[in-house]
User: What shape does this take?
Amino acid sequence: MRIGVTVFPGSNCDRDALHAIELMGAEPVELWHADADLKGSDAVIVPGGFSYGDYLRPGAIARFAAVMGPLEEFAIVGGPVIGVCNGFQVLCEAHLLPGALLQNTHMRFACDRVRVRVETTETPWTSGCELGEELTLPIAHNEGNYFADPETLARLEDEDRVVLRYLENPNGSMNDIAGLCNEGRNVVGVMPHPERVSDPVLGSDEGMRILQSVLAEARV
Amino acid sequence: MNIQETYSALGLSDFEYDRILELLGRAPNFLELSLFSVMWSEHCGYKNSRPLLRRFPNDGPRVLQGPGENAGVVEVGDGWALAFKVESHNHPSAVEPYEGAATGVGGIIRDILAMGARPVALLDSLRFGPLDEERNRYLFREVVRGIGGYGNAVGVPTVGGEVEFSRAYSGNPLVNAMCVGLIRTEDLMRSRATGDGNLVVLLGSKTGRDGIHGATFASDELTEESESKRSNVQVGDPFAEKMLIECCLKLLEEGLLVSLQDLGAAGITSSASEMAASGGVGIDIEVDRIPRRESGMEPFEAMISESQERMLAVIAPEDEKEVLALAERYGIGGNVVGRVADHGDLRVIEDGEIVGSVPAEYLADAPVYEREVVRPAYLDDVQKLDLEALSEPDDYNEVLLKMLAHPNLGSRRSIYGQYDHEVGTNTVVRPGADAAVMRIKGNNRGFAVTTDGRGRHCYLDPRGGGAATVAEAYRNLSCIGAEPVALTNCLNFGSPEKPDGYYQLAECIEGMSEACEAFGVPVVSGNVSLYNETVMGPIYPTPVVGMVGVLEDVRRIATPAFKREGDMVVIIGPPYGYFSFAGSDYLEMILGEVGGVPARADLSTEKEYDDLIRRLVQDGVVDTAHDISGGGQMVALAEMALAGGIGMDYEGEVDLDRLRRSEEQNVDLFFFGEGGASFLVAIPEERWDRLQDALVGFAYDWIGYTGGDGFKVGDLIDLSLDGLKDAYERDLFGIPGEVVGGTEPVG
Assistant: This one.
């Protein structure tokens, strides 16, 4: 399976994601922002970092990068896409996911490991998890406070589109949302970093529960 | 302005101006004078410290690059090497804390990048005045924000560091940033310019007026007027730095660079003259080809501007197109601004005319001041301390809680929680332990790194404190299981032109050197920050050591956290008689005094015990270890319990009642005294025999078992883990106007 990782200027978890894909046994593919080409990827990770320096708003400029054209088409036809941290912000700015990520309510950057619960396994990125399973995942963000209007929030809950929920809310996110998916359920955004817990030497490989879920897609 | 006023305003003395006249055989023009002024500042020229710095041992079996380059480099094994250095950004941070700290981080990253290494870890050693002053709270908050703001965005994890609060740093905070980079030994880059006709390329951001005369500013005392020097502080752009890193590493990978140098203090002047001087060549800079951020800049301004996020590269002429194309791909500036020439001068050319020309070796050869080392009178006052007069505390519970709640001993979580310490997915041991541990992808190797400084100890006893600083770092690495291989240091001191300041500098260097020799750990890079004084006086002399250790197997490590219920807890260290309250945290925090000559183990004993602990970890006997440092044994035990979320009962073979009655060793001293070379370990009971075998010939005592949710020591301490946690886990940014670290330095 070929898994692409977008590289915007200022992405800084791109190499981590590429490394994690290698550990998964899949083929990592670097997707340079200026090339409008997914290079035959079967799935795409939009990694964390500070794309375009987070200038204007996190993700606001990245959505106009050349690589986003084919990525949006891929997402619309059901291709599995996950945005992690800044990648989540990019997918919201690109309207592939609803809502927005505001500054943390405590106004500080937050780097920690947090407990989250898997709220749905009906996505390509959680299909390998157990429903209700609790994972400990790293977070590192300044703008992770999920916000949506009441109707959107109600829809997300009604349609079972909250993917991960914090057990202890670290940033003020509405409904403790740590991750969610689009209507088609193939596009997922999460603030925690699964690629950072992908190797036992780092103390945990629980992130692989999420990343490896997508491998099942290759078999269908 | 007459000429004397001009050179004085540029920070040059009469003697130095005469030296310039003598060297050049003519009067310099203003541009040339500016070049000398920045290059002969203490910050660039080390004119007060150079003779003293020669004392440091620099050689070791693993050293690939010692002092004299942008960073020191040591071999790790399997073809890997580490480049590392620590540098100060004290003065900029005192007047503009966010940008001062941020650009401090950016600057040290470029030093590492200049060696061809990928920056993989950052640490920060910080000192502030006590948090009861609004100004100090502001400096602390903004410095931490600046470090995070830059480091998080640039994608290099901040994995460790330290912070202390003391009145001695009020108004003159210390902000020392350390960076470690990883490189294949065959890719090691140097800054030597070579090849007549090779091109000099400026990479990165445009050049503005920011930071003009920053190096000179950093070499002066802080006064009221310093506020007006805000424009001397540069502004950082971590996004530009991130692209600069990726571009430079790509250029190296493609083999397109002859040499590489960062632009830091004194800008292009410093970089170009150092590249020329070390290569024994000259460099022509066509100053009008330097891309400007603002119009109307004079040549001298472009030459000494400290605009951030720039690197200078020497390339072969035939690679020009490829180099500039790569710069464009990464969205950064790339401009040919000069060429290597065989005339040996740093030559500044504007519109085809030479507007300044000075032999590069003169710029790199600042005059050296050697001064007499005279023991200051203040030492006699502060070293007096009647330890006999100290009475035993009534309530040990209260003492322990008070110490854990002190900002100098409490949890640093509220600081490192603002730093991304995991980006890069190499961080094996995260902040909060004795040292950070990083893995090297692709094999089992890794490295550990720590920064340590002991300002109060150096103030009370400069030589002993210097040695203790190195010992602390050696101990921290050893107890995590790493083999210490080399260190970098940042020497933060007051004015060397005052006898007290010069004595402290000379003696600390002597003590550090003695320890380096005893431990076999060479100094491979460093930085000097002098003139750390305000109207209130000098700071504590504070040499900061950043030490790096190698791990053959990154999975064989120990951390302080208790890991299992029912583990045996053992104290290991030379017989306790040498623990002392002199200069201790207990003395300052509980009794409100700073005084005495702090105790420390002799260096060979320290090495024996430290090496023992490392062997225990490497052999897999011990996976839980912590050194006894500030706050003594009880604070260390509380930290181990809190980190693991497991309590302990001190019910071992130490007879507390006997200690209480003893003449030479009191319970309070045993609990809170400091002295070095001492450790706490916890092991499953089935390893007890194995541990005892390994400890033959060493002093140790079994002191109790881990377990439960209480912290109980005989009938003296009885606290819940929650109680300890409430004291320890305070938000350091939420302390309003409370008196902490408030003891006045004497003398």
Notes: Chain A touches chain B at residues 9-10, 12-13, 15-16, 19-20, 34, 48-50, 52-55, 108-112, 138, 140, 142, 193, 195-196, 198-199, 201-203 (CB under 8 Å). Chain A has one domain: 2-217. The two ends of chain A are 12 Å apart (CA to CA). Chain A has a mean pLDDT of 97.
